[in-house]
Sequence to fold (227 residues):
Amino acid sequence: MTVDERRAPAVGAEVRRWRIERGLTLANVAERAGLNVGYLSQIENDKASPSLACLNSISDALDVPIAWFFLGNVPPPVVVRAADRPTTTTDAGQIEFVDGRAGRDVSIIETTAKAVGALVGAHSHSGDEHHLVLRGRFRLRQGDHVVEVGPGDYIRWDGTIPHEGGDRGGFGARRRGDAHRPDPARNLTVTPRAGAPRVILSPDPIRPRGSPCSRPVTQNPESRWCP
Fold:
């Protein structure tokens, strides 16, 4: 490794950025950090390589974490436009990947039930599962707990425990003059990225326990969908 390759990373632009962001002059920061104004100017222009102790003094003077001085090459945020979401249609309905399948830690999907009353069998996966109801109503069950949730309601449960749910019917009309025709429910779900659903059992959440489902869900060969 050459001397150039071992050269300390340039931090001057970030030091200057946060000094200006804080509305401080070179003299202000130099006084707070106990540094010479000329030396601080050299740091901002990458003509001097400060020690960690020196950077720590500057970070205290600017009231920012020292790590922020090393964030010069920040990658751009990932933006997924609504019109560009990957989508798939299954027996369950339409699934939109809100995060564009680009999330590193979680998977965010928006599901619109295929029809009012559509149901899904029990499944499990690692981590917590979060739901936010956007439209309609859902009846959800995990163990002996059965809850019904509507627009704006949030529910979280342990994804490792088998859970199931179904569309209980929407309340919004699809168009004016069609007020008695409910929309299928819509739900936003957040699960760990590594938590691929794995079905444990598949009774219908409306029928008594022990009534088996018979039709497989196409988005997951192991899943079973209760018609």
